[in-house]
Design goal:
Layout: E1 7-11, H1 18-31, E2 41-45, H2 51-58, E3 64-67, H3 84-88, E4 94-97, H4 100-105, H5 110-122, E5 126-131, H6 135-139, H7 143-154, H8 160-163, E6 167-170, H9 184-201, H10 204-209, E7 212-214, H11 223-227, E8 234-237, H12 244-251
Parallel strand pairs: 1-2, 1-8, 2-3, 3-4, 4-5, 5-6, 6-7
Helix pairs in contact: 1-2, 1-12, 7-9
Length: about 260
């Protein structure tokens, strides 16, 4: 029995229309016969335009709904942004925060990520915080210093009780959408470093309770390698999560 509940989150990014979302969830619910809510948590994070349909289709199931981002303001003149009340209305439980694509393409910083984490928590949702290094940082031996800096800045001013709720996703930037993936040893080493850092920032008990996922070209063919070490608590999945059969196989890796 694992110490922590594994969590697999499907990050659909800018894919799937309203109708495609309905079709995916119908197939997912029908074919995931081995699902056991006591052994695994499955989260679907569709684009904003599909949240309503996803919420409707997931109602009454054991599967959770997530969003891909959220603003750190309650409301206001912020064109194109999404407020927490808009997510809560659909029953959103999880919110992905600080994904490398948001940091790279939309200039998100650790400061804004920190504000978002606090606001997600204040609105009774659970952040999935993404951290990770570039290929240049990895090759220069700076992986740990990059992760350390992100964790210290992102968790600044967040108390231990709230920090324990946050899911951390280690996503090496060089492995996202590239077809490359970290070896299981690489992933385990960094996840263990994340736990060590959380122990130093907070406490050993917290470091043993917080859930840490791996993300980066995860697919059915390699998920077992990552999940064989119980320090990794699931995965944040991009491309492979767009296929219900593949996402089911990934979730079934711990059953």
């Amino acid at each position: 029995m694992r110490k922590r509940m594994p969590i697999f989150a499907a990050n659909w990014k800018m894919y799937k229309t309203f109708g495609e979302t309905a079709k995916f969830i119908d197939e997912f619910k029908t074919n995931f016969k081995a699902f056991d809510k006591n052994k695994v948590e499955a989260v679907i994070c569709p684009p904003y335009t599909s949240l309503f349909k996803a919420a409707e289709k997931l109602a009454g199931t054991c599967f959770s709904l997530g969003a891909q981002n959220m603003n750190f303001e309650k409301e206001g003149a912020f064109t194109g942004e999404i407020a927490p009340a808009m997510l809560l209305e659909f029953g959103v439980k999880y919110v992905i925060i600080g994904h490398s694509e948001r940091r790279a393409y939309y200039n998100e910083t650790d400061e804004s990520v920190n504000k978002k984490l606090k606001f997600v928590l204040a609105n009774d949702m659970v952040p999935i915080l993404c951290v990770g290094e570039t290929i240049e940082e990895r090759e220069a031996g700076k992986t740990e210093s990059k992760i350390l800096g992100q964790l210290k800045a992102d968790f600044a001013g967040i108390g231990e009780a709230d920090a324990e709720k946050i899911v951390i996703a280690y996503e090496p930037i060089w492995a996202i959408g590239t077809g490359k993936n970290a070896t299981s040893k690489d992933a385990v080493d960094v996840v263990n470093f994340i736990r060590k850092t959380m122990s130093e920032i907070y406490s050993k008990p917290l470091s043993e309770k917080v859930r840490v996922q791996y993300g980066g070209s995860v697919k059915p063919e390699n998920i077992a390698e990552y999940m064989k070490d119980e320090t990794i608590d699931g995965a944040l999945i991009g491309g492979a999560s767009l296929d219900p059969a593949k996402f089911i196989k990934i979730c079934e890796s711990v059953l």
